[in-house]
Amino acid sequence: ATLSGATVGMTLAELDRVYTGPIVETTEVDGSPHYLVLRSSDRRTLLWGPLSGEGDDAVVDGIHSARACDRGPFPG
């Protein structure tokens, strides 16, 4: 879980409601769906992780921040 309240098992729609300032987007990594939480000011990746399913009902399977709140693995 994050300090903001994001948890593994929540849907993409719920994640989007938790992060009202940052931007939540989806992308594919090695052919698998992932979410990105991007800082709105410069679009740097704050959090990212794999998803199960598609659309707003996709489920968060992990929460990663390789470089805590600074870019992560995606330059954005």
Features:
76 residues, mainly beta, four-stranded antiparallel β-sheet, 1 helix, 9% helix, globular
Structure description:
With 76 residues, the chain is mostly beta strands. 9% of the residues lie in helices and 32% in strands. It has 1 helix and 4 strands; from the N terminus they run H-E-E-E-E. It has one helix spanning 12-18, and strands at 23-29, 32-38, 45-52, 59-60. It has a 4-stranded antiparallel β-sheet, with helices on one face. Strand 1 (23-29) and strand 2 (32-38) form a beta hairpin. The chain is globular and about 30 Å long. The N and C termini lie far apart (23 Å). The model has no long low-confidence stretch (mean pLDDT 87).
Mean pLDDT: 87
* Oligomeric composition of the shown chains: single chain
* Helical content class: under 10%
Query: Could you spell the SSE succession in H and E letters?
Result: HEEEE
Estimated structural class: mainly beta
C-alpha Rg (nearest Å):
11 Å
Alpha-carbon distance between the two ends = 23 Å
Largest sheet, described in full? Answer: 4 strands, antiparallel
Record field, number of beta strands? 4
Brief synopsis:
By secondary structure, the protein is mainly β.
Map the helices and strands.
Blueprint: H1 12-18, E1 23-29, E2 32-38, E3 45-52, E4 59-60
Antiparallel strand pairs: 1-2, 2-3, 3-4
